[in-house]
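Case 226 in the screening queue. Each case pairs one protein sequence with one candidate compound; here the compound is zinc ion. For every case the pipeline is the same: read the inputs, emit a complex structure as tokens, and attach any notable structural observations.

Predict complex for case 226.
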Amino acid sequence: MYKYETHLHTSETSACANSTGAEMAVKYKEAGYTGIIVTDHFFNGNTTVPRDLPWEERVELFCKGYENAKAKGDEIGLDVYFGFEYTYHGSDFLVYGLDKQWLLDNEKIMGMTLYKFLDHVHACGGRVIHAHPFRDYDYIPMMTFAPHRVDGVEIVNTSHADPSFDERAKMFAEWYNLPVTCGSDAHNTTNRWYGGGVLTERKLTSALDYVDAVIMGEAKIIEKNK
Ligand SMILES: [Zn+2]
Ligand SMILES: [Zn+2]
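Case 226 output:
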């Protein structure tokens, strides 16, 4: 089986993270993963990228965590793919299958409502996983749902201490008959590193291929502490 982390942050780009992309790559390689998808907080989330720079410079800075992880991954034999975590009033959506050039060309996404954004991502060939939909912390001002505009639901987020968040996410996915997956939301290599992710029988070739595996039911969830 091949092991993948699908949801993680780097300190280059996520203000709440404290390990670099390269450090994260080494940690996952040592833990036996085949690959990782770097999903830093986008400009509507907890980003390190200053808001007052020109768009091109912001995108350039945004991709640093991924690029550093990718360079290290190439060196040590870990597949590293790109994604981003788009936040809408505190609710998080993991976007896969798009790249830096797409971000450079799409400054307009910042002015979109959530549904418009999700439709646009799909029209451009991207895919979306609803991250931890029932996480219930004070930093999230409201829960937002888009069940007809996501390709799957993160029903296990191994960072959660409260099991009810995942139990509700499982019910939500069943209710709407949505594909299910797992991510960890790791923010460093030590006290905010949780294991988790998915197992697949075939080697994945891209972040888009990962979501395809989820849709096909080929991505086996790694439960917490496993
Ligand atoms: Zn964070
Ligand atoms: Zn996250």
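Case 226 observations:
- The pocket of zinc ion (ligand 1) is lined by residues 9, 14, 16, 41, 46, 187 (CB under 6 Å).
- The longest helix spans residues 163-176.
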